[in-house]
Amino acid sequence: MADRGPRGLLDTSVVIDLDKIAADVLPEQVAVSAVTMAELAAGPAAASDVAERARRQDRLQRAEAAFDPLPFDVEAARAYGRIYAAARAHGRNPRRRLADLLIASIALANDLPLVTRNGADFAGLDELVEVIKI
Description:
The chain is an alpha/beta fold and about 130 residues long. It has helices at about 10-15, 35-45, 50-65, 75-90, 100-110, and strands spanning about 5-10, 30, 115, 130-134. α2 (about 35-45) runs antiparallel to α3 (about 50-65) and α4 (about 75-90) packs across α5.
């Protein structure tokens, strides 16, 4: 198995599936972003099924207890310009993947690899951010 490194920023897709992912494929130290926490907070409101809403609420509460999220700060805002430009150069519409690009900006600003279940969401950013697909 490939070494996943000592640190990494988990994309929302990883946090959602965290209970299904073997710990040995994740970096030793993991972080999440405030953007991921916002996506998780929206999850219960987006669910029409009562049981799914409860599962999403539970996931949010577990994430809130486990992580101190990295903010989208001034450095991340600066990094976003580079991330946005790279996405455009790759032929993507950055506005359609705003949350993903904000998460990538936080990874870039904090010099962290980005760990995701959806590598295609970060296509074209490889020169700026190491994207680890699990």
